[in-house]
Write a structure and sequence with these properties.
By secondary structure, the protein is of the alpha/beta class. It is 57% helix and 6% strand. Helix 33 (685-696) packs across helix 36. The longest helix has 29 residues, at 12-40.
């Protein structure tokens, strides 16, 4: 039986519009036919094809325009409505035009007389009007967009591919529940969850399900009251959006008048003025319930459900929230409607003066509540995304960019599953906060920095970034106190406690942390608090920790400042300044890669100085104990080959050539002897003697001895310097912490020889053989053929002394305007090398902590009577300093004397280096020196050397011929008087 409430007064306005529309369209067709007759008269028979193509193009353009404007969708909507009554009215209106009307007939006659050119002009105008928006749209579509900065937006998720939090499944179940609820008056669903949990995305998935699975059953209205928070009438806004949405999906012409009446009812009286008179219009006497019934009948007649989704309710103030809730309450009579409210209860309660009362009111208002949560597993899954395969999840950021941030994101995922995960979830426990963090990382341009090749501890970096994002005041104080070379309140300090050095926090640090809230205190403790860091004993901390943790900020480990500059200034350290570069290189070597391949990388180019090689060898040697035999052999061979390529000059790289000799000794001590498959063999005499075999070139190292290789003929006089430096640093009394090498030199001649006992005696025993073999090498090269050692030193070029980094030093010092300093350093190094070689070979001192001199030993045997010193004195005075062989030898003698000045004398309170008897005779045999001066002294004075403008540069002073040669002559006269032995 038909309910009387479902039979309503017909909407005369709707039927009237349909009748008029039918008449207008038929009349338009008639006028077009008549105008076409006039147009045909101007078309030339010779251009029928052209006109046909033109007209066809116009037709295609109109069809395209109608398609773009959604004409097809509208037509389907009209046909799906099955409004036979409106179709009949439309046909009736068209039929009415068949009845002759004098005015219309006369108008038709006038149109038929219009010149066809005017008709053509009118068609062209219509064509251009239709074509204009299409052409503009096509131009914008083809226009390339300029490149932009890539960030993660906070847009809600709209498709399954971006369902990071895996909320689609629960959203679909929710959507099914809403559909299954049927017609229930005033059914309100509440979707409760904290900001950033994905409420809007959840509703997007639900709406997608309704559109895909029930598109003919549900009309979805997404109402965002935050957009209209300042509007005094939110109910009217809702009606407008509801009307627009219903009419965009179904053909219900009666709905707009009903909705308009409802809107007027809600508004009440309307006031307006006209020509200075004020008028008031009262709404019709219909009740609100009757108007709601009209809307409900429209929905029911078309078998439609209305789902009104109200989002971001918790972002409104308390008054606006009340307005929205009462707006919803006033529409409860709609049987075909369901409401979904999206909010965060805690935020709503906080914004209300009476929080508990607001909570109870909300609970009474919402019929069905669904709470959303984010578990850390979903966030970890997002952080561990395979960006190579799933980069399309965030098309705003290239996959390769996210791939470069993988190290940071993976570490954050680890932090969200360790013992502090619950605390970190409060800081970064939803997708909005996570995107904010990722955007901060992108802002720092970290994708341009390969973090895997830096020293930054990623957990410390993340904690500092969380401070930067959430506690900018704390971060600013850290920045002020710990940058520009300062070591302030936050970084660790050292102090003596119970006779040992320990790391401590600054006084008052713990109290300060407690003033920054629970989460601020947590981050500060994670970064700087000693007990939380658990670094271990001072002095036993691994270098990889010292260069990586943010708690250290004292030279040379200014880590915290580097972290801060990275975050604030986006300034990442150069790879050559990082420990990681060298650690990775050493790992590659340990894994079997050739060292030559490792050092061929751009970061190790000697054109940029020796620093990178210096750090590489330092770390390699420190970790060489675990090397297998092949890796140890490769390391020793490569280091020996590389030594001549390094700088001997003591500049900013501190003279890597000299330090490489000590690296070689340490490498021999740690890895230069037997090893089993699993570990290095015990350091018994039978095993460690292999080190001596390597040095002397015996056993399996025949022809490959280090003595021969270091002082190979191709290496010239600097090879002799390297060899003597190698020998000196093998001396046990120097306590160089290379016990295995010391012991190997001792047991070389006798495996049963004791390696413990009196240190000086052990040194004399161990250094005898190596000294004799080194001197034998020198004797064959220089003494026997009477080759002047000093001539070779003076012919050394800058390239010989600076190695392959010569262009780097020239460029660097030229840029600094300090080429004079470079020249002086080169000459000082040349002088140092001369003095060192002569001193080592002449020195007869027994071991006293500085190394036993070569001159202490004989060339053979174990009598140790100083034969080597005797032979060297003869070589110097009879060959190198003998002016009878070559006049320039006299200058070699004078230069060597000027390099032997001492600073025992003082002039006017300032230190001054002057010649002295003790300085002249500390190494050279005083009797040989006296005899030499007795023979050649008069000749020297006759040459007038003080008149020569020449200087001798040493590391500590600069001596000149003009000022210092007369003083040298005076001292030599004293030596002659004191030590010359007159043979009767």
């Amino acid at each position: 039986m038909i309910d009387s409430t479902t039979v309503k007064m017909p909407e005369l306005q709707v039927f009237g519009k349909t009748l008029v529309l039918g008449a207008l369209l038929v009349e338009l067709a008639k006028i077009s036919y008549i105008a076409g007759g006039s147009l045909s008269s101007v078309l030339s028979d010779r251009h029928n094809l052209a006109w046909l193509l033109g007209i066809g193009g116009c037709v295609c353009l109109v069809i395209w325009y109608l398609f773009i404007r959604g004409f097809g969708t509208t037509a389907k909507r009209v046909m799906r409505s099955r409004r036979i009554d409106l179709l009949a009215i439309f046909i009736l209106g068209g039929s009415a035009t068949m009845i002759p009307v004098p005015i219309v007939t006369e108008a038709h006659a006038h149109i038929g007389k219009i010149d066809g050119h005017w008709i053509l002009l009118l068609l062209a105008f219509v064509f251009l009007v239709i074509a204009s928006p299409l052409i503009r749209a096509l131009t914008m579509w083809r226009k390339e967009r300029p490149p932009q900065m890539y960030f993660l937006t906070d847009d809600e998720v709209t498709n399954d591919a971006n369902d990071v939090l895996a909320s689609r499944e629960s959203a679909v179940e929710f959507a099914k529940g809403v559909l299954a609820s049927g017609s229930s008056n005033g059914l309100i669903y509440g979707v409760d969850g904290p900001w950033g949990v994905g409420k809007t995305s959840f509703l997007n998935f639900a709406c997608n399900y309704w559109r895909q699975e029930a598109s003919n059953q549900v009309i979805i209205v997404r109402f965002e009251p935050l957009r209209y928070a300042s509007d005094p009438d939110l109910a009217d806004r809702l009606i407008r959006e509801l009307t627009a949405e219903i009419q965009s999906q179904v053909y219900v012409p009666e709905f707009r008048p009903a909705a308009n009446r409802y809107s007027r009812m809600l508004k009440g009286k309307a006031d307006f003025s006209f020509l200075g008179f004020s008028f008031s219009l009262e709404p019709s006497p219909e009740t609100v319930d009757e108007l709601l019934d009209d809307i409900d009948i429209v929905l029911e007649r078309n078998s439609l459900r209305l789902v009104v989704v109200v989002d971001d309710l918790d972002r409104l103030d308390a008054k606006a929230v009340n307005d929205v809730l009462f707006m919803v309450r006033r529409t409860f009579r709609l049987k075909q409607a369901a409401y979904v409210l999206c909010y965060d209860t805690e935020n709503l309660v906080e914004s209300n003066d009476d929080g508990e009362r607001a909570r109870q009111f909300l609970e009474k208002f919402v019929n069905i509540k669904l709470s959303l949560f984010v578990d850390s597993a979903s966030l970890r899954s997002f952080l561990r995304t395979d960006w190579n395969r799933n980069g399309s999840q965030f098309p705003s950021i290239p996959a390769d960019t996210m791939l470069k941030l993988e190290a940071v994101l993976s570490e954050l995922a680890v932090m969200l599953e360790d013992e502090n995960a619950a605390t970190y979830m409060r800081l970064i426990g939803d997708l909005r906060k996570l995107k904010r963090f990722v955007n901060a990382v992108l802002q720092m341009r970290l994708e341009r920095t390969n973090l895997a090749r830096t020293d930054f501890n990623l957990r410390d970096l993340i904690n500092l970034m969380l401070l930067h994002l959430n506690y900018p005041g704390i971060f600013r104080r850290i920045y002020v106190e710990e940058t520009e070379g300062r070591s302030g309140f936050f970084s660790l300090k050292t102090e003596r406690m119970n006779q040992r050095t320990v790391h401590v926090n600054s006084p008052g640090f713990l109290e300060y942390t407690q003033t920054n809230g629970e989460l601020g205190e947590f981050l500060l403790r994670q970064l700087f608090e000693v007990d939380t860091l658990d670094l271990g004993e001072y002095g036993s901390i691994d270098e990889s920790v010292l260069v990586a943790r943010a708690c250290f900020n004292s030279t040379p480990h200014r880590n915290l400042e580097a972290f801060l500059l990275l975050i604030v200034r986006f300034a990442a350290p150069e790879p050559r300044e990082t420990f990681r570069l060298y650690q990775d290189a050493v790992t590659r070597v340990a894994n079997g890669n050739p060292i030559s391949d490792v050092l061929s990388d751009a970061e190790f180019s000697l054109a940029d100085g020796n620093h990178a090689h210096d750090e590489f060898w330092r770390i390699l040697v420190s970790q060489s104990h675990s090397f297998d035999t092949a890796t140890a052999q490769q390391s020793i061979e490569t280091l020996v080959e590389m030594i001549p390529r390094y700088s001997l000059v003591n500049l900013e790289d501190r003279g890597l050539r000299g330090r490489s000799i000590y690296n070689l000794i340490r490498l021999l001590d740690r890895a230069g002897w037997r090893r089993t498959d699993a570990q290095r063999a015990d350091n018994t005499p039978e095993n460690i003697v292999e080190i001596a075999h390597r040095i002397y070139g015996e056993g399996s190292y025949l022809g490959q001895g280090l003595i021969d290789r270091l002082a190979g003929h191709s290496r010239g006089v600097l090879g002799v310097y390297d060899l003597l430096l190698f020998r000196l640093q093998c001396s046990a009394d120097r306590q160089g912490q290379v016990q295995n090498l010391h012991a190997a030199l001792i047991v070389y001649n006798d495996l049963t020889a004791p390696t413990t006992g009196n240190l000086n005696a052990l040194t004399v025993s161990g250094m005898r053989t190596i000294t004799q073999r080194v001197f034998a090498k020198f004797r064959v090269r220089y003494i026997i053929p009477s080759v002047n050692l000093f001539d070779e030193f003076d012919t050394l070029t800058h390239a010989d002394l600076l190695g392959e980094s010569l262009p780097y030093y020239i460029t660097s010092f030229t840029h600094q305007g300090q080429m004079d300093r470079l020249e002086n350093s080169v000459e000082a190094t040349r002088s140092l090398a001369k003095s060192f070689v002569v001193y080592q070979l002449l020195n007869r001192h027994a071991p006293t902590g500085s190394g036993v001199g070569c001159g202490f030993y004989d060339s053979t045997g174990d009598a140790d009577q100083g034969e080597i010193a005797y032979l060297m004195n003869q070589y110097l005075f009879e060959v190198c300093f003998n002016p009878n062989i070559a006049p320039e030898n006299a200058e070699h003698f004078l230069n060597y004397c000027l390099l032997s000045l001492s600073s025992d004398n003082w002039a006017h309170g300032n230190e001054r280096y002057q010649p002295s008897v003790q300085g002249m005779t500390s190494v050279m045999d005083p009797h040989e020196l006296a005899r030499y001066w007795d023979v050649h002294g008069h000749w020297f004075r006759s040459q007038n050397y003080p008149a020569i403008t020449k200087k001798v540069i040493s590391l500590n002073y600069v001596a000149s011929y003009a000022e210092d040669i007369p003083l040298v002559y005076a001292v030599l006269d004293q030596v002659q008087a004191q030590f010359l032995v007159v043979v009767p």
